[in-house]
Amino acid sequence: MLFGMGSYEFLLFPQDTRSLSLHNAASAYDHSLLRNNPAALSMTTAKTAYSYLILPAKIYSSEIQWIRKISSGIRAGKLSYISYGNFEDDETKEKTTAYDIFFEMGYKKELKNIVSVGISGGYMLSYISGYQSQLFFTKIGVRSRMMRKRLGLGFSLENVGFLLTSYTDMKESMPAIFRTAMYYRPRFLSTIISIDVIRRLNSYFTEFSGGLEFNPRKRLTIRLGCSSLRTGFLTDDFLSNILLDVSGGAGFQFNKLNLDVGFWNLGASGYVVGFSISKKLD
């Protein structure tokens, strides 16, 4: 479980730093890594990337991802791991651990440079204090671009699958969602404005996430993000409310190497901070 939200929530949490900085939004705009909507995977370059995030309560996650061009499109694979730390039984003093690990492969194809289709599938193993659960999941998405790629729309069905084994005899539901996303790139401003609408299929809960990417220089990107969830955590302290549920970060581009750093303010739970390093292969 991630911050008590429920089992398998790691599937919904950002594992790379650009996603972290944008509050896991911007799912309709090109992304150099495999993320929420596989149809938004960028066709521009092949690369290998590594991400590392530090969460509150001594939780950390890491991910390695690789993207390769093929004749019919582009494919990607990633291996992600999150450790929830060690636990000790008060009576027996026995120490145990908890972690999630999953492997995912994705494929994307563009149709006349206007519409993209993508699909990905993966396997997840979740282990908590001697109990384990296994599942298969898939993501299917489409993305279209208009107005000389200044406007884009994306739709994706994510985390749909089935449990192989559950922690106990009572099976918990997977965090399946339907995502609607859009982006807009103003003509005279080097900025990308993104909005994602996430509808949970098992609870009919709807969440809004927004992201802003600004390029003051050619090799520098500034990012900000927030979501509708912040309204549920507001307090009477004005100063603490300013950055509540706000994320942000920066990206630095070099000749063959890109570096991204970012954070996400989780309110009373603390901050998530992380970095990603990617290397171009062509």
Describe this structure in words.
It is built from 2 helices and 14 strands. The chain is mainly β. The protein has one domain (9-280): Porin, CATH 2.40.160. The longest helix is centred in the first third of the chain and has 5 residues, at 17-21.
**Largest sheet, order of strands side by side?**
1-2-3-4-5-6-7-8-9-10-11-12-13-14
Major beta sheet summary: 14 strands, antiparallel, barrel
CATH level 4 superfamily: Outer membrane protein transport protein (OMPP1/FadL/TodX)
The radius of gyration over CA amounts to 19 Å
The amount of helix comes to under 10%
Distance between the termini: 39 Å
CATH class: Mainly Beta
Structural class: mainly beta
Shape: globular
Uncertain stretches of 5 or more adjacent residues: none
The number of helical runs is 2
Number of strands: 14
What descriptive keywords fit this protein?
Porin, mainly beta, 14-stranded antiparallel β-barrel, 14 strands, 282 residues
Topology (SSEs and partners):
Blueprint: H1 17-21, E1 47-55, E2 59-70, E3 73-88, E4 95-111, E5 115-128, E6 131-146, E7 151-165, E8 177-184, E9 191-200, E10 206-217, E11 220-227, H2 238-242, E12 247-253, E13 257-265, E14 271-280
Antiparallel strand pairs: 1-2, 1-14, 2-3, 3-4, 4-5, 5-6, 6-7, 7-8, 8-9, 9-10, 10-11, 11-12, 12-13, 13-14
In short:
It contains two helices and 14 strands; from the N terminus they run H-E-E-E-E-E-E-E-E-E-E-E-H-E-E-E.
